[in-house]
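Please decode residue identities from the backbone states below.
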């Protein structure tokens, strides 16, 4: 699969940086405003989907495939578990073991920021992996149809 037209590829190339930056912003400021790890992870997954939809299967062959999603989803889960366990070691489960500042700023969240980062990575990779599995299922289904002669031969 080659992907979309040159216009779509160029537009996607220009937008992907902004999509990833916005996803990271939503993750990092989730303790200050609506958003957080889940919403930011969905935005990051949308950025990865944009790459695959615009450029076709080539990015998948170059390392942006199922193993990529599996590794990053596992890292997100381990990161979230590490935040929980470090909080437990500090006194209570999910305690704020990082000293946080007062006021309206990025460093006021304590360990919530680390939790949001881990959740964002897990959600983004999980949704991307789900998309890849659905795409692989659809590809195998269409391959079965063409082998059986059910496909449109016109």
């Amino acid at each position: 699969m080659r992907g979309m037209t040159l216009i779509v590829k160029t537009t996607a190339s220009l937008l992907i940086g902004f999509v990833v930056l916005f996803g990271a912003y939503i993750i990092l400021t989730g303790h200050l405003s609506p958003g957080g790890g889940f919403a930011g992870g969905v935005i990051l997954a949308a950025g990865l989907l944009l790459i695959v939809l615009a450029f076709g299967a080539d990015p998948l062959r170059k390392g942006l495939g199922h193993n990529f999603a599996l590794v990053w989803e596992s890292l997100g889960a381990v990161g979230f578990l590490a935040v929980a366990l470090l909080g437990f070691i500090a006194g209570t489960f999910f305690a704020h073991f990082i000293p946080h500042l007062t006021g309206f700023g990025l460093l006021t969240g304590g360990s919530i920021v680390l939790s949001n980062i881990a959740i964002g990575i897990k959600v983004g990779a999980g949704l991307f992996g789900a998309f890849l599995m659905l795409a692989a299922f659809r590809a195998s289904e269409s391959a079965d149809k063409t082998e059986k002669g059910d496909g449109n031969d016109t």
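Observation: The CA atoms of residues 89 and 125 lie 28 Å apart.
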